[in-house]
Write a structure and sequence with these properties.
heterodimer, A: alpha/beta, Rossmann fold, 53% helix, B: alpha/beta, 4-stranded parallel sheet, 15 helices, 10 strands, 11% strand, globular
């Protein structure tokens, strides 16, 4: 278990070095996929390596000249990397520009400063009811596949796509198993280790990640841990598109709380919903995208409530409260949040919202909020 | 000696306020007359219009609230009821209005609208879905939802347009047929387009007077004149308005009357981004004393820039084409950054511009991310400098006078410096 966690920590501590090295080792091209909904399986089936674009760990410098202070951190951070010439190992990008307004403008800046050999703009629609939406989503994926075939000069057969989907589905089921064990033994991993595990899945080839997960799961199953019943279970929710700062996760635990499960993008959202592999694999990928749960505020879902989902997850885990993690200047989360909070109030569920930016301006302020939340729900 | 600049106000623009007030008053009282009411975002309001319904239009409502001075109090209700200030101010205005109705909070009665029989969530930008979702969750209003993408690259235009057309035909129209209990009225749609086409054609003739040196009118004059070629479309008075405006501009040209006295503008400026509806006077007071006149912008130019393409014989096809077609003035050339660059380049040359103001809305991220890079590209292409002004369309808490003054001063000094070379 320690060997796997150490390897995963190495991958996520410097994603640039890892992905650049990966390109050399595997002798394959790297395609950066903008979070959160690009179907990586199609890139994988084209014999390329998909990696999910990440927020850098370094302070933003030149990026400030290109991105206003009231736009989100991942955008500013990745633009910063582009203008500083840190992305030369990337061979291509895929941008899903209908997710939020910032995603719609982002490719323009990127291609002006660093345009790799391949770029694809995806228009995955809001998942509104009706045939036009379903048909358009499928056509978008067909167009995505064709663009990759044009780039590589090789056709992507249904069989190779199915094989890629199987590898991704296996990763999803292994990740689900990790979460299942964690739910039963929340003390077994620190919250930041779990986030690193998910994040590494976004960076590593899934075949390699599956091997690591298999070893990790064996270790997790064998390891016994002492239950810390005094710790209060809480569920972090949100943090769309980007990693939550590890310092914040550590703070939650240092304040006597414990995270048995989550509703985070770099968390359970990433591996939710296996692709149902009956029939046309592209259609199966479209169906996965068109799935309403876990509810994502970027997808235009009306008839179910994110708050209900979060409360169910909290109750299923016997948790005592919800910590909403809102990335500053994330309009989808920001617009949804008032209704989310109202739902918590209606249901009498303790909830606190913390905001995070690319760089932590004051951990002390976050600590105060979390400390008072922990006290409210009966902690230390 | 310093020149004392002063606006020569147009007479015709005085006619706008009564037209706009009547539109919103008719909407507010529609239910009293037993009429059905729609709410809409994006250009989808034309469908309820064709069915004889009164319809709200999301951005139009925000502009109206800004114009009548109601934005502050409605935004305060939104904030007091939980909205976060960094979300779209148009979104917050609607949430504030809904909460005022729900909780009986007193606000300017002109800002209160009747709940719709059907709301079209035309997701031109994702916020247009967020606001409608919020209203649905809080007020349980019936909704029809459609995705209205903005094509990023020209090669994407055909498939995006086909998707949009299909949704108009298969999703929006059947939903209104159901609500109204009658078939869709294509004849009335044609009539609306016939009037719109004529009004927009005359409007284009008015645009020619921006090319005069000195300019005969300002972008703000045109800004307040947009409604007749958009959400007041189809009304005969929209043609009358533009005929009168054209006549006044012709008279100004004949008598050599400039937009600003005594002898016209010192700086001819491009304005990027939204029109700051609640702060038109504020910006005029900052620009005019410096001899600066805003002439054009990609947003004000998006409303049926090519009226010749509207075809009342094929109303739905040509309406969708006008927004999403090849060289579409709205969804490629005016909204997406790559298309916009070419449009702005053309505007800089056609209208002999000296500088650019990039109005960066702190609460709307439709354009603000690409503005610094666009400004850089355009400066390198045309030698025309620009500044970014950070503000908002209607939210006064996001306006900083000193920031605006400093940046405008920098722009004017830069233009002067270029002229001295």
């Amino acid at each position: 278990m320690e060997r796997v966690l150490s390897k995963i920590a190495e991958v996520t501590s410097d994603p640039y070095a890892y992905v650049a090295g990966l390109k050399e080792r595997k002798n394959k091209k790297i395609i950066g996929c903008f979070p959160m909904h690009v179907p990586e399986e199609i890139v994988h089936a084209a014999d390329l390596i998909p990696v999910v674009i990440w927020r850098g760990n370094e302070p933003v410098t030149w990026g400030h000249a290109h991105v206003p202070p009231y736009d989100c951190g991942i955008t500013r951070s990745f633009v910063d990397d582009a203008v500083r010439g840190k992305l030369s190992f990337m061979d291509g990008f895929v941008f899903h520009i209908r997710q939020c307004l910032q995603a719609g403008e982002f490719p323009f800046i990127m291609e002006r400063h660093f345009k790799p050999a391949y770029q694809k703009i995806l228009y995955l629609p809001a998942i509104y009811p009706g045939d036009p939406t379903r048909d358009f989503a499928l056509k978008e994926l067909e167009s995505f596949k064709t663009s990759l075939e044009d780039f590589t000069g090789k056709m992507i057969s249904d069989d190779s796509l199915k094989k890629s989907i199987e590898i991704y589905n296996k990763n999803r089921s292994l990740m689900e198993r990790v979460y299942e064990i964690r739910r039963a033994k929340p003390e077994i991993l620190k919250a930041k280790e779990v986030m690193q595990i998910v994040w590494s899945s976004m960076l590593m080839p899934k075949e390699d990640h599956n091997e690591l997960l298999t070893e990790l799961i064996k270790g997790m199953e064998e390891k016994s841990v002492k239950a810390q019943k005094e710790r209060i279970k809480v569920i972090p929710v949100g943090c769309l598109c980007q990693t939550l700062q590890f310092d914040i996760l550590d703070l939650i635990e240092d304040l006597g709380m414990i995270v048995p499960d989550d509703d985070l993008y770099i968390g359970s959202r990433y591996f939710a919903n296996p692709v149902n592999l009956n029939g046309n694999p592209l259609k199966a990928l479209a169906d996965r995208y068109l799935t309403k749960t876990p509810l994502c505020p970027t997808k235009g879902v009306w008839d179910i409530h994110w708050g209900d989902e979060a409360i169910k997850r909290m109750r299923d885990n016997d948790a005592k409260g919800i910590i909403s993690v809102r990335v500053k200047y994330c309009p989808p989360h920001t617009c949804y949040y008032p209704d989310f909070r109202s739902k918590m109030a209606e249901e009498g569920v303790p909830e606190v919202m913390i905001e995070m930016e690319h760089e932590i301006i004051s951990l002390e302020g976050v600590k105060t909020r979390l400390q008072s939340f922990a006290e409210t729900i009966g902690g230390v | 000696m310093d020149i004392k600049y002063k606006v020569n106000r147009l007479v015709t623009t005085n006619d706008i306020r009564p037209m706009v007030d009547k539109h919103w008053a008719d909407l507010r009282t529609a239910k009293e007359r037993g009429e059905k009411v729609a709410w809409a975002s994006g250009p989808t309001f034309i469908i309820p219009y064709a069915m004889g319904m009164k319809s709200h239009f999301m951005a139009g409502y925000a502009a109206y609230c800004g114009g009548i001075g109601a934005a502050d109090e409605v935004l305060k209700v939104a904030e007091a009821t939980g909205e976060l200030s960094e979300s779209c101010s148009y979104h917050r205005l609607h949430m504030g209005m809904a909460e005022a109705i729900k909780q009986g909070i007193e606000i300017n009665p002109a800002a209160i609208l009747p709940m719709p029989d059907l709301m079209v969530s035309g997701r031109l930008c994702p916020e247009m879905s967020h606001y409608a979702e919020g209203l649905y969750r809080r007020m349980n209003v019936p909704v029809v939802t459609v995705e209205l993408p903005i094509a990023y690259a020209k090669e994407d235009v055909p498939r995006v347009k086909a998707f949009v057309y299909r949704q108009f035909k298969e999703v929006i129209i059947p939903a209104f047929e159901k609500v109204c209990g009658k078939p869709f009225d294509y004849d009335h749609l044609s009539e609306i387009l016939t009037v719109l086409k004529k009004a927009a054609t005359i409007r284009n003739q008015c645009w020619e007077f921006f090319k005069d040196k000195p300019s005969r009118w300002t972008l703000w004059d045109y800004g307040v004149s947009i409604a007749p070629v958009f959400y007041l479309m189809g009304k005969p008075e929209s043609i009358t308005y533009y005929e009168k405006l054209l006549k006044e501009l012709q008279e100004r040209r004949a008598k050599n009357i400039p937009a600003i006295a005594p002898d016209g503008e010192k700086y001819r400026l491009y304005w990027d981004g939204w029109i700051p509806w609640a702060f038109l006077g504020k910006f005029m007071r900052k620009l005019i004393p410096n001899g600066a006149v805003c002439i054009c912008g990609r947003y004000p130019w998006e409303f049926f820039m090519h009226p010749e393409r509207l075809d009342p014989e094929h109303p739905l096809e040509s309406f969708v084409d006008a927004f999403w077609g090849e060289d579409s003035p709205r969804c490629f050339s005016n909204k997406a950054p790559k298309g916009s660059l070419e449009l702005i380049s053309d505007l800089i040359e056609e209208y002999s511009l000296d500088g650019m103001i990039m109005f960066s809305s702190k609460s709307c991220r439709l354009w603000n991310l690409s503005q610094p890079d666009m400004m850089d590209v355009l400066y390198k292409r045309h030698g025309v400098p620009g500044v970014v002004i950070e503000a908002d369309m209607v939210d006064a808490s996001m306006i900083s006078d000193s920031q605006i003054d400093t940046r405008l001063e920098a722009l004017f000094e830069t233009i002067d410096g270029i002229r001295r070379r």
